């Protein structure tokens, strides 16, 4: 156990080292003194324990898992550099040398040093082996936006006649999978925000997130989940081979135009075949995504469908139905599920659809709802035993005034109020992205 005085001395010397890096040129004695002091103190502590951790958790300084009171005021340089470099925690290990500490202070305070995981790699390359940097997990909105960017790049590569690289696609799907496995509610919430310019890219990401969630709910194994995530992310990649004019056309298509659209699953699976390391399964899922459970749809085939195809078909239909399109007013999620239920056993595998409906709930996470009390809230989790009674957070009171902070309310435990309708977030002027970003951050903090 490290004494409070010792803790204070260590933090002070490290903070002073960071501060002097900013004020003095390299080699100045004002830098050497606090660095040496930090080294002496750390070596002392590491005689009796294996390692020591200093961290930044949601902008609060943490020492050995305990928040440091007044950390922001007492050690601002240290905290600012950790935050700026997206470092979650610094772990000093027994055997740490003075030179290693110097390198750490240098890179943490460095103007153009990389951030996060890259910074850790840089330190390692410099021969630092007794200090580990743990990096902040990316926030879900960053992951979501990064995925949209990746789909855009991949599709642009195809349009330019290039073969897209597989690595960024794999990375994005790994990130989405991790988000879905750790906190599906937060990232599904993002798929419900439908205010964007380019339908195709966001739709691709949404379908991937929804499909990964459905795959998880169906307990498919990790390799299959990865294939489903990629297949869903790139399911419409073949649309790059169909003219924009046809894709964006409002109203009915001529039969020639329709024939063109129907080529996109085959075009897509052909693109996948040329990409490095993409499996046959991924190509098959893309080829089959418009073939329905009863074999109607397109392309025409009588051969057996892969059982995982339905995961993408269902997710695709749900995202398309709940989005405003040139030819369609969006359905609210509850209506979309009702529409889909009408096609159970025809377009959709009834078992998979049931799992889906249970997962999404009557009022999916991210849906804005108006209550019988006239209050407005956002759904934060689905109650599997009573889909019409989700847990929500109230955002507006009965007079339409925004509440100073969201108020949690579990409708299953409070019979005084019920959901009477859904509310369109764009007309209600609510920034749901910011809301789910914050939710995610709070959960991470709590966990
Ligand atoms: Fe499609
Ligand atoms: Fe689609």
Short summary:
This protein is of the alpha+beta class and 447 residues long.
Index terms:
alpha+beta; Hypothetical protein af1432; five-stranded antiparallel beta sheet; 19 helices; 52% helix; disordered C terminus; binds fe (ii) ion
Would you give an account of this structure?
With 447 residues, the protein is α+β, with helices and mostly antiparallel strands. The chain folds into three domains: 132 residues, no CATH class; 221 residues, Hypothetical protein af1432 (Orthogonal Bundle); 79 residues. Helices cover 52% and strands 12% of the residues. The protein has 19 helices and ten strands. The strands form two sheets. A five-stranded antiparallel sheet has the order 3-2-1-4-5. Strand 6 and strand 7 form a beta hairpin. The chain is globular. The C terminus is likely disordered. The site of one fe (ii) ion (FE2) has 5 residues, from loops.
């Amino acid at each position: 156990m490290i004494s409070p005085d010792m803790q204070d001395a260590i933090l002070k010397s490290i903070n002073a080292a960071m501060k002097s890096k900013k004020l003095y040129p390299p080699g100045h004695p004002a830098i050497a003194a606090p660095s040496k002091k930090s080294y002496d103190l750390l070596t002392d502590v590491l005689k009796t324990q294996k390692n020591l951790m200093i961290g930044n958790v949601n902008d609060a300084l943490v020492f050995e898992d305990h928040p440091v009171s007044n950390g922001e005021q007492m050690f601002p340089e240290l905290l600012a550099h950790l935050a700026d470099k997206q470092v979650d925690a610094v772990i000093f290990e027994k055997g740490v040398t003075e030179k290693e500490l110097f390198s750490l202070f240098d890179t943490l305070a460095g103007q153009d040093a990389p951030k996060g995981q890259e910074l850790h790699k840089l330190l390692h390359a410099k021969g630092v082996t007794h200090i580990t940097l743990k990096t902040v997990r990316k926030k879900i909105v960053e992951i979501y936006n990064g995925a949209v960017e990746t789909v855009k790049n991949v599709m642009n590569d195809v349009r330019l006649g290039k073969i897209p690289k597989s690595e960024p696609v794999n990375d994005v799907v790994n990130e989405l999978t991790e988000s879905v496995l750790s906190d599906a509610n937060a990232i599904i919430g993002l798929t419900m925000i439908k205010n964007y310019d380019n339908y195709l890219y966001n739709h691709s990401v949404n379908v991937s997130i929804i499909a990964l969630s459905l795959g998880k709910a169906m307990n498919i194994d990790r390799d299959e989940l990865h294939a489903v995530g990629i297949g869903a992310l790139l399911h419409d990649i073949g649309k790059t081979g169909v003219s924009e004019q046809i894709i964006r056309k409002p109203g009915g298509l001529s039969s020639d135009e329709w024939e063109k659209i129907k080529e996109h699953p085959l075009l897509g699976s052909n693109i996948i075949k040329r990409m490095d390391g993409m499996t046959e399964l991924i190509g098959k899922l893309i080829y089959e995504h418009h073939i329905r459970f009863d074999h109607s749809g397109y392309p025409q085939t009588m051969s057996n469908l892969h059982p995982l195809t339905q995961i993408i078909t269902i997710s695709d239909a749900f995202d398309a139905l709940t989005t405003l399109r040139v030819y369609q007013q969006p359905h609210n999620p509850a209506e979309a599920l009702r529409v889909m239920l009408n096609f159970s056993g025809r377009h959709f595998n009834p078992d998979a659809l049931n799992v889906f409906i249970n997962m999404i709930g009557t009022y999916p996470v991210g849906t804005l709802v108006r209550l019988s009390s006239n209050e407005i809230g956002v759904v934060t989790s689905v109650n599997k035993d009573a889909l019409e009674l989700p847990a929500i957070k109230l955002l507006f009171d009965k007079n339409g005034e925004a509440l100073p902070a969201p108020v949690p309310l579990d409708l299953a435990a409070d019979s005084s109020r019920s959901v009477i309708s859904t509310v369109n977030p764009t007309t209600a002027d609510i920034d749901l992205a910011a809301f789910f970003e914050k939710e995610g951050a709070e959960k991470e903090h709590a966990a």
